[in-house]
Each structure stands twice: as C-alpha cells, then as structure tokens.
Design a protein that fits this description.
Distance between the termini: 25 Å
Radius of gyration: 61 Å
Oligomer: single chain
Number of strands: 17
Strand order of the largest sheet: 2-1-4-5-8-9
Amino acid sequence: MRLHRLDITAFGPFAGTQRVDFDELSAAGLFLLHGPTGAGKTSVLDAVCYALYGAVPGARQSGQGVTLRSDHAAPETRTGIRLELTVAGRRLEVTRQPPWERPKKRGTGTTTDKAQTWLREYDTAAGAWKDLSRSHQEIGEEITQLLGMSREQFCQVVLLPQGDFARFLRADAEARGKLLGRLFDTHRFAEVEKRLAERRRATESEVRDGDAVLLADAHRMQQAAGDALPLPELAPGEPGLADAVLGWAAVARSTARERLTHAHCARTAAESLRAEAEGLLGGTRERARLQRMFAEARERAALLEERSGLRSEAQARLERSRKAERVAPALDLRETAEAEHRQAAIDEARARTRLPGTFAQDGAAGLAAAARRVAEELGGLESARRAEQRLAGLAAERADLEREERADETVLQDAEEWLAGWEETRADLQARIDAAQQDAARAEQFAVQREPAQRRLRAARQRDELARDTDAAQARTLASRERALKSREHWLDLKEQRLKGIAAELAAGLVDGEPCTVCGAVEHPAPAQRVARHVDRDAEERALAAHRDADEQRAEDERRLGLVREALAAATAEAGDAPTSLLAEEWEELERLYGTARAGAARLHSAREESRRNEHEWERRTADRQQAALRGAARISRRDALDREQASLEEELLRARGDAASVSARSAQLERRAALLADAADAARAAEDAAQRLKDADARLADAAFRAGFDTPRAAAEALLGDEAHRELQRRLDAWQQEEAAVRAVLTDADTVAAAQQPPADLEAVERAAEAAVRRLQEAVSAQDAAARRCTELDRLSVRAGVAVRRLAPLREEYDRVAGLASLASGTSADNERKMRLESYVLAARLEQVAAAATVRLQRMSSGRYTLVHSDDRSGRGRSGLGLHVVDAWTGRERDTATLSGGETFFASLALALGLADVVTDEAGGVRLDTLFIDEGFGSLDDQTLDEVLDVLDSLRERDRSVGIVSHVADLRRRVHAQLEVVKGRTGSVLRQRGAG
C-alpha cells in the first residue's frame, strides 16, 4: 500500500481544504510531520484512517460523525476526506463525507445530511477515473479485503503508536493477550475452548440423565414385579449401577415366569369345568324351549277353530267385490257424464240471462247467426276508430309543443345565468391547478426518499420479528428432536416384543394337513398361542411410520431454523443497528410530509377535470341557447298544420258515431253484444252434447251389471269395495292361513312332540351351576393375564435397560475424551504443565515471531546490545505463555522489559512495532506496506541513539518504503529534510509541505 495524495476539508483543526502530496514527501524515503502541540499532527493520521475505514483510531472514536467537523469551518463548507492510494496494483480514490448539520436553504434552523462515500479506480487504458461504488458497506468490505487488515490492525501496523507499544512492553500477560488477539484474530481458538467446555458440560449432563433413566426403569420393573424384591441402594452416576440393575432384573424375570406357569395350570382346569357346565345348560335350555313351543301351538289351534265362521264370511265378501270390479269402469263413466251434463246446463242458463229478451228462445243456430250480423256491423267502424285515435294524438302533440316551449324558456334562462359567471370560474380553476402542480413537485422529492427509509424500516421490523421467530424455531427444533428420539425407542420396543411373539404369529396361519412354512410338518400338535398384548406386524409398521414422520418433522424444523437464521442475518445487514422505533419515527415524519404533498397533488387531476368539464359546459350551454331559438321557429309552423288536420277529423267523426258519445263507445257496444251471442251459442251446443253422452252411459252401465250377475246397477255399486277395505280383508285371510300352517308345523314336529312327553326342565338350577363355573374361569384368566403382563413388562423394561446401558457406554467414553480435551485447552489439566490456554499458546507462537523480527532492528539500534526473546514461564500464580524478556549482551543476563530505561524503552518499542508490522503483513497475505507512520517518542533519545534509530528507519527504503515521523523534536527538523509542517492559528490550522530538495 502506497499513499499518493490526501485532501482534508473542514476536518479536525483544519478550517478549509488542505492537501498533502505523499509522492513528493516519499521521494526521500523519510519525512517529518511536525508542529506545535495541539496543531493537528495526529489529525492528519486520523484523516488517513477515516478515509480508509470510515472511523478514526480507537482512542479517539468519540469524535465520530458530526463532531469530526472543524469548529473553525464556515457553515456552508462540508467536511470531507479524499485519499488517493495504490494497493494490490490498483490505484484507488476514496472520498468520505461524514454527517453534516448545515443551515436550511429555506427558512431558519439547520438540517442534517447523511454521510456519503465514493470509491473510484483509475483506468490506465482509458486514462480516466471510473466509479466503483457509493455504498458504505461495499466500500468498507473492498478496502478491508485489499489491505487484508482490520482497522485495529492498520492502526497498529501502519500508524505505529509508540506509547501503546511502550505499554505493551511493560504489560502483563493478560493485557498482551488482548492486544495480540485483536491483531491476529485468535478469537476462534478461544471459541474452540468455549465449545469444548460446553461440550463437556453437555456430555456430563447426558451421562447423568442416562443413569437417571436407567434407575427409573429399575423402579418401573420393581412396580411391575409387585414390589416383592428390594432394589439396590445406588444413585445416578455411581459405579456399578448398570450391572446391579441388570442382575436384579434377571431375578425378577425368573420369579415372574414361575408365577405365570402356576396361573396357566389353574386356567386349564377352570376351562374344563366351564365346558361341562355349558354343555348341560345348552341341552336344558333347548328342552325347555321345545316344551314351551308345543303348549303355545295347542292354544293357537283352539283359537283358530273358534274363528272359522268369520273366515268363511270374509271369503264370500271378497268374492262379490271381485265381481263388482268388472262393473266399476261403467259406473265411473256414468258419474262423469252426469257431472258434465249438469255443468253444461248451468253454463247455458247463465249465458242466456245476459242476452236481450228477443233471443231467449233461439237455439244454438239462431244465436250463431245473430252473432255474425253484429260482427259485420262492427267491421264498418274501423275507419272512424282510426280517425278518433288520430284526433287524440293531435291533442297530445299540442301538449308536447307547449312542454317543449316551456323547457326551451328554462334552458335559455339557465344558459344566460351560467355564462354570466364563466370568466370568474375559469380564473379560480387555473389557480387551483397551479397550486396542485407545486404539491406534485414536492411529492416527487419526498417519494425519492421514501423507498430507502421504508426498506430499512421494513428490514428492522423483519429483524425484530425474525429474532422472535428464531427463538420459537429453536424451541420447536428441540421438541421435534425429543419426539423423534421417543418414537424411535417406541418402535424398537415394539419390534423386540414382536420378535418374541413371532412363533404365535406364524402358528396363526397353520392348517391341519398342510405343511408348516418353518419345519414342513403336516401335524401341528401344540401350536404357540398369542399372549396378551401381542404385537403384530401392523403395530410395528405403524410405530415405524410414526418414527419416520417424527424424524422428517425434525429435519424440516432444523431446515426452517436455518432459513430463519439466514433471513435474520439478511434483515440485520439491511436495517443496521438502528432501533426500529427511531426508524419508524423517521418514516412517519417523511410519510406525513409525503402524504400532505401527495394530497395536494391528488387535487391536480380533479382540478383539471373540473376545468375540462366547465369548458365543455360552456360549449354545451352556448349550443343549447342556439338550438332553443331554432326550435321556437319550427313550433309555429307545426301548430298551423295541426289546426287544419283537427278540423277535418272532427267532421268525419260526427258522421260515424251516431247517437253514441264516440266511435269508441259505439264500437264497444257492438263488441259486447257479439261476445254475448257467441258465448250463448257455444253453451247451447255444449248442453245438447252432454245430454246425449249421459244417455249413452246409462245404457252401458245397465248392460255391464247384468253381465256381472247383479240385478241392478245399484247392487253392483254396493258390492264394490274400496282399495283400503279390499287390502285389509285380504290381509286378514292371509294371516289366518299363515297361522294355521305354523300351528300345524309345530304340532307335527318330532323333536317338539318328544320334548313335550318328557318331564319339565329345571333351568334355574343348571344356570346357577354354569355361572359359578364361568366365575371360576374368569378369576383364573385374570390371574394368568396379570402374570403374563408382569412377564411382558419385565422383559420390555429389561431390554430397555440393556439398550440404555449400551447407549451410555459410548457417551461415557465421549465424556472422558471431551473432558480431557477441555481441561487441556483451558489449561487446567495435569498434562498441561505450564497451565497455558489454547489461545495463549497460539498467541505465544505469534509473539515469538514478533520478537524474532523485532530483534533484527533492536540489535542495530542498540549496537548489538539487546535482544528480545519470548518467555513461556509462569508469573506468580497466573498462567504462562506471553512473557517478553530482553537479553543484555553486556551482562549476559536476561531480564524483564519493564526494567528498560526511557530511551531504551523507546527504541525497543519501535523495534517491536516494526517487527509486528512485518508479521501482521505476512499474516494478512503479504500485502506490501509502502507507507508507515511513527508517532512520537524520539525526544527520549540521545544524539548517538537517535542517529542509530534514524539509520534503521532509513534502511527501510531498501524495501522501497517511505516512513513518516510524527514528532515535535527540533533536532529532527535538521536531520530530516522532507517535512510536512502543521501551523496553528486562531482561524484553524494549515499545512506547509517541503520536499527533500
């Protein structure tokens, strides 16, 4: 890295713009930055650091943001730093402007502009600068990547603070470790120590939890065994717990199996007794049933004999009804014809009452002829009716003309009133349009600022929400892991139980005479029986499916947790560290201003539309006024034509209507008369037809009754039954027949007759004996089931305890291994003789490299007297690893660096700083550092030592480096010719540069 040019504006003590040409200063390889105390020498170095990293060195970080601005600067001058440098073969220009509180352009008060950053690169092919980025984050990442150093490393390696290294020489191991940890980024080794300690605690907890689970299973086995055997007195974590529990479980299982054998024998005896009692009970119940059936059948036969007369009468009644059904169609036809004749006579009488007396005795033909004569007279009035309708239309047209005239008068009056205020309305609308356009311009300005503010606020809210979601996702992940583990244990338990009962499962498919699928035998004398709570294949597969579902849910929860964490990182990068409430306040203020401007801008469209509507209204009203005048002239001609047509029509109507009030009235009289005559003629013809149909129906009915065997049609009608009565009578006959057949079947059955001849059965005594046998069997079955469950539960818990013991073995081995590594890394292990932590060990290696690099320059500065060496001895009761001693060649003794004098401490710290710069540079990837600064400390050297130190610094030019010395020592101005002087004044400091010539 080589610096070329630095421009400082309104920064620190510099009121105006100051420029530093590092190319000129670096020509001699060594240059001096001097000036009185408080003039601003360190501010030049702060400007370099701020340009690269956007922050000043750590000891002066309180001067960030607005406070970096010079108090001497003019209000309109903005603070800015521009640095031109070459790094990694690329010539770059970095410009940074911190936040600026400037006067408002309108009104009074101040407003704050945000910080801005630019990064440009010089394109040698095009001979011009090209923009790379304006993002603070992107520029910071690019600079850090190119330099290979963080800000803290840069301040220690390029801006060598001698006071810090003097304190480093005198510091204890802990203070040295903090500084070296920041420079070499060894926190990952500290993280390894932390992870090992956490893993040790976790495995220890798992081992204790496993012992607790094992002991809990032992208590469950004791409960299953009936608390007959006492458990060993052991606690979780004690040695021998697993062997003691497994041995006790074996004894409990043996005792339970003995009890199961006794219970099985008792059940076999009870089953034999129950089978005998059930056989006797079944025979007794069957004999009692048959005896009861025979007695009931004899009673039903006597009842049927008593009702035989009613049955014969019902059969005769049903037979007469079947004969009468052949006459039913003729009866229905006669009733229909009689109803139609009666209704036709009523209609004829009603129609004749509406006719004049001259037509009372006319027949159907006479009435029809009269109707035709009236219709002919009605047709002659059609022309007069049209004339009368036209006369009514003329009156309507006159009314329409009058309405149009009144409407045109209203239109003319409205148009004149509206057009009188047109000019004033147009001026008001134009003023509203101009105001809305101004609001639209302001709304566009605020809209540009809304999107970045809204995006940061949305990201901040998402950051807060995702932080909560992350906690919830972690809880769900832990819960799903626990469920997956439990479902796996349940599946393994069921699988073990099924394997134990697989013989019974295979025996269920055996068939006598068919070979066994296992041994091939065709005889199966004693197939295995399924015990209580047998686990079949379906139960095992359901448990396996549940385990797979739980494992998939665990994987899904872990994936979602990763997604939430990635989203949280992205939202944090977008929103930054600003609180959500502050961003919300900024967004609300901006939204309020934007809403006000937008509301004003929204009125632009309505104002323009209203102006356009008013223009159209002006054109419409002007046209309406002209059209109304034209329609008035046309109405005068139309009225004259209507008067002439009305006189002609009135003369024609006077001739046509006769004595009637109008042609319509005359026409209505003739229409009513023609309709009445036509209705009367139709009714007379209908009555004649109905009378003839009634006569024909009477003849058919008499003939049908005679053929069916009835003397008169009335007798046939009385014999006919309705559908419901017919069905009821048939149902009663069928029931009598079915009852007779059922009684005959019971009285002739051989078993029933034989049972009736035996003595009555004593069913109650046999049932009491059978119930006693069932109770004894139930007690035996309950005892056997309890013994089987005890054995099954003890077997299951024993298997579970064995699995737990096998699972705990690798956990305990892992705990021993992790505990040893954690103790070794933390420096508490007996194998770690020097009690050195892992991070201290790494830093000790780095410190040894720094001491070796510093010794090369220290020997030259001290004329070969002093050598820096690393020491890993313990100091007091603390840990070792970061000791630093100096070897005095004159005495041959090694002593602590805190015993050096002031001048010796300076050149030792300078050598240490230069050595540290070389080591950090190599650690950062070998980035070349062509420009270094050394701050203060030269006043403590005598002339000879100062010459030797300057010779060492001057030798750095051999590697094409330039070194800037920051000091106010007057003797250095004579020795170093290239100088940058900081001159202090009441209006601020200024820079004066002088080259090597």
